Amino acid sequence: MDKKALLNELKIDRSETQVETTRPIKWFLAIAILGGIGYVGWSVQFPQQTVEALEVRTILAQAPAEFNSDNSVLDATGYVIARRMATVSSKVTGKVMDVLIEEGMVVEEGQVLATLDDSINRAQLALAESQVAAANAAIAELEVQIRQAELNLTRTRDLAEQNLASQADLDTDRLSVEALSARLNKFRRDIDVAERSTAIQRQFLEDMLIRAPFAGVVIAKAAQPGEMISPIAAGGGFTATGICTIVDMDSLEVEVDVNESYINRVYPGQPASIELNAYPDDPYQAEVIAIIPAANRNQATVRVRIGFLERDARVLPEMGVRVSFMEKGIANEPAVEVPVGVLVPGSAIAGTEGELFVWVVQGDDMSRRNVDVSDKIGSRVLIIAGLRSGERVVTELNAELQLALEEGAPVSVLN
After folding, report:
1. Tens of pLDDT along 7-38?
2. pLDDT tens for each residue of 335-385
3. 30 belongs to a structural domain
4. Which site among 8, 85, 291, 402 is 20 to 30 Å from 330 CA-CA?
């Protein structure tokens, strides 16, 4: 056989291999191109857009009569205080195991705020329950003894009727039954004592759960897991005296000190206007709750309590306020003409002189509203058409914010 022919048969045909390997690559490229075209078409038809809510500040449009301070008879300064505020602590000294609250958290009445180490209390409760079980077992044994004594008394009574037993034997068996019955009553009283002791131990165990005394907001957190807590102050300074401080926001009111020379101008039920120092352009309607019947001789002032008739989340404890005390209908004074319309800050109005508008916030959306402006009263502008009292408008408009605002855009109200 020709060796050269055999060697030629061992050669690989490169042309056939190249054709076979290029076909899968061509198919793959075709599928990739079609997939890319489909994805682009789907993206154009269904664009994915995530619109973030625009953060804005708003203010309430109010009628001039609602806050007009022209008829103020007295102005005073004071602070927002909470009538219901408590630093929550434990009844006993113990080690904090877990704290379940943080500052700013809203809690309900009875909600668990923290837990203390209750290992000893659980052991004492188990001991008290064992004592109750032991007393019940002793009663069961005594009841058997009473039945035996009653049977002996019955037999002795029958023998005594036949003159086969003496009166002394009969009296002994009768007294034995009475003695066992007395012991049974004592054991039952012992069970009552043991059950009440068990109830006390259960209460001690329950006291290891520190609960909220009322619904409110946590404004301070004073303890951490692992610390010791006590209802009384510790001399060493390593023991906390409270878990947290809770404020009932529904109990917020204002206290002001009025000079005793002008206290005759204030009376309970008197209308008033409260302006927060932080938001001086958005007053709140209020009325006098009470005049504290005592004067401060050092300052020559009398304390007055004022309650909010309307309030929102901006009112916080310990905020500084300015209170204007109003006078209701003085007979000899001429009637003051109240302008028609609503008042808003000048920073809430945008547009040119011929086409002024405001942005009205309704829920999480806002809309553009054309308005007619009449006069300027103080730091506010009187709108006579296009806006109603009680509606909220975007304030602090600047060039950047005006460019970002658009009809129907989602907003997030900061205040």
Report:
1. 566 555 555 444 454 555 556 566 666 666 65
2. 445 567 888 888 888 887 778 888 888 877 778 888 888 877 666 788 888
3. no
4. 291
Distance of CA 95 to the CA centre of its chain: 25
Statement to judge: residues 79 and 226 lie in one domain: no
Residue given tokens 């806002």 in the structure block: 366
Residues 125 and 198 in one domain: yes
Task: Locate 40 and state its tokens.
Answer: 């682009």
Task: Give the residue numbers spanning the domain of 162.
Answer: 119-206
Task: Kindly state whether residue 42 falls inside one of the protein's structural domains.
Answer: no
Q: Is position 4 within any domain? A: no
Indicate if 216 and 357 belong to the same structural domain. no
CATH code, 322: 2.40.30.170
Residues with Cβ < 8 Å from 384, sequence gap 6 or more?
A: 340, 341, 372, 373, 374
pLDDT tens profile 319-344? 999 999 987 654 334 444 556 788 88
Secondary structure (H, E, C), the chain: CCHHHHHHHCCCCHHHHHHHHHHHHHHHHHHHHHHHHHHHHHHHHCCCCCCCCEEEEEEECECHHHHCCCCEEEEEEEEEEECCEEEECCCCCEEEEEECCCCCCEECCCCEEEEECCHHHHHHHHHHHHHHHHHHHHHHHHHHHHHHHHHHHHHHHHHHHCCCCCHHHHHHHHHHHHHHHHHHHHHHHHHHHHHHHHHHHHHHHHCCEEECCCCEEEEEECCCCCCEECCCCCCCCCEECCCEEEECHHHEEEEEEEECCCHHHCCCCCEEEEEECCCCCCCEEEEEEEEEEEEECCCCEEEEEEEECCCCCCCCCCCEEEEEEECCCCCCCCCCCCCCCEEEEHHHCEEECCEEEEEEEECCEEEEEEEEEEEEECCEEEEEECCCCCCEEEECCCHHHHHHCCCCCEEEECC
